[in-house]
Amino acid sequence: MHFVDAKGILTGNNGFTGMNIYRGCTHGCIYCDSRSKCYQFTHAFEDIEVKQNAPELLRDVLRRKRKRCIIGTGAMSDPYMHCEEELGLTGKCLEIILENGFGVAIQTKSDCILRDIDLLDKINRTAKCVVQMTLTTYDDELCRIIEPNVCNTKRRIEVLEKMQERGIPTVVWMTPILPYINDTEENIMAILKECKRVGVKGIICFGMGVTLREGDREYFYEALDKHFPGIKERYIREFGNSYNVPSPRDKELMTLFRNFCKENDILHMPDACFQYMSELPEEYTQMSLFGI
């Protein structure tokens, strides 16, 4: 990893305020879109760029921000990758979010988030906290192949349970679903049943498939050659260089997904999930507008 002094820490679009403390990742997920060349990395993806002044930047900008909001983090780089265990920058930023009365929506694949569960609990009690966890396969052997350097699915489900015990709402990202690898009814139903059991508020799934583009595609295909002989050729033959790579079972699996969520009162339309994660409780928003 290497350290930089960033000029800014918060970004905003479409009503979301985002924060990325790190650039790059060490989790090694074979499908990671963040590897794509469009993000213009000037360093190796696993050579993590650390915004060492992130807490100071965040403290300054939140003190000057007139209206409280939800701070989102984890969309581009996991805030609980391996270097966080040593550096603790995510934890420091959560302390600042708590001190200033803001909410947080945090996305991860790592059980390292449990280190900060007390902080997340306090944020949820004083504003709002939503923990998002990615679940792609219920098969832990497969998980070790496609997401090799991070805790397995069963452990992530345990994290969701522990958040539920604290009353911290959770959202699951059930994506990507890789054609001919984890796009089975058995896999989808196993994940959905666990989501119901642990009481998740919402599940985000844009469709059964994966997106691939330059930089990401090459890394993914190399992994396919290593672990799933013959699948790469099938992808090339059926999808070419398409950005969207849908499962041939997309329609039936999405119908299964939507029906399950409707029957169990789980948010499942992406816009509804994003709206839920981006909104503070109304009474809290009103208080912030009047500077109370």
Describe the protein in words.
This protein is an alpha/beta fold and 292 residues long. It is 42% helix and 15% strand. It contains 12 helices and 12 strands. The chain has helices at 54-64, 82-87, 89-99, 117-126, 140-146, 153-165, 185-198, 216-227, 231-239, 250-263, 270-278, 282-289; strands at residues 2-4, 10-13, 16-19, 22-23, 49-51, 70-73, 103-108, 129-134, 170-173, 202-204, 209-211, 244-246. A 7-stranded mixed β-sheet has the order 2-3-6-7-8-9-10, sandwiched between helices. Helix 3 packs parallel to helix 4 (117-126) and helix 7 runs parallel beside helix 10 (250-263).
Which features characterize this protein?
alpha/beta; globular; 292 residues; 7-stranded mixed sheet; 3-stranded mixed sheet; 12 strands
Query: Helical content, roughly?
Result: 40-55%
Label the structural class: alpha/beta
H/E element order = EEEEEHEHHEHEHHEHEEHHEHHH
Low-confidence stretches: none
Number of helices in the DSSP assignment: 12
- Write down the overall geometry: globular
Strand content: 15-25%
The Cα radius of gyration reads 19 Å
Give a short account of the largest sheet. 7 strands, mixed
Biggest sheet, spatial arrangement of strands: 2-3-6-7-8-9-10
- Give the terminus-to-terminus CA distance: 42 Å
Average pLDDT metric: 95
* Total DSSP E strands: 12
